[in-house]
Amino acid sequence: MRRPVLLVVAHGSRDPRHAATVHALVRRVRALRPGLRVETGFLDFNIPSVTGVLESLDAEGVRDVVALPLLLTRAFHAKADIPAVLAEAPPRLRIRQAEVLGPSPLLLTALERRLYEAGLTPADKSSTGVVLASAGSSDPEAIAVIAAIAREWRHTGWCAVRPAFASASLPRTEQAVRELRALGCARVAVAPYVLAPGFLPDRIARGAADADVLADVLGPSPEVARLLLDRYDAARVPVLAAVGA
């Protein structure tokens, strides 16, 4: 029995860095699991579209697909946009939507990797406050998840961790930076909790102007690639059971 195709569903962006980062991440996933077919589809702005990929798979005779939202929180896109697009897929395709990527300990490890790549060391943790800067959402569930991640991350040894949002919610990155300064942290670092560059990550970067350290986006980090496969595997089991594997 062939394994279901993994379809990575990305939002898309007018910023070419976004698609380039998504494709780099998918290449890393393929390298981690040779033999697994991994496709990429975009909801907007970029090609191929999710609908186009699904139609092509159906035309090839593929029957089982795991659609994995390239999202860090379960907000509007995961709850509404993606299910709506998948519902329009050719009826012969059996599609299971995997869980979004966050929260996960692997993402915390990836965040720390990016901070260390930006110049911090583990010895700096106790004197460094970190802004966990996400894109933001109007969904209260997504905002609560970011706040919970910040609380969990604080217990790994950082001076303090504060959530911030580039849109829809407060505080903004620059406000969180000032708050950490006021708490007395010797240095302040901003860790973008976003997967790829674009408009909102650029806003996070501008808000980090007064921070000591600005980490890169999560991008194609090894931890994120591993997490995609973990989410695929968790969704794949019911798919295979449904077809008698």
From TrEMBL:
Pfam family, one: CbiX
Keywords: Lyase, Metal-binding
UniProt feature coiled coil, ranges: none
Domain of life: Bacteria
InterPro entries: CbiX-like (IPR002762), Sirohydro_Cobaltochel/CbiX (IPR050963)
Record-linked SUPFAM superfamilies: Chelatase (SSF53800)
Protein name per Swiss-Prot or TrEMBL: Sirohydrochlorin chelatase
Organism: Streptomyces edwardsiae
Source taxonomy: Bacteria, Bacillati, Actinomycetota, Actinomycetes, Kitasatosporales
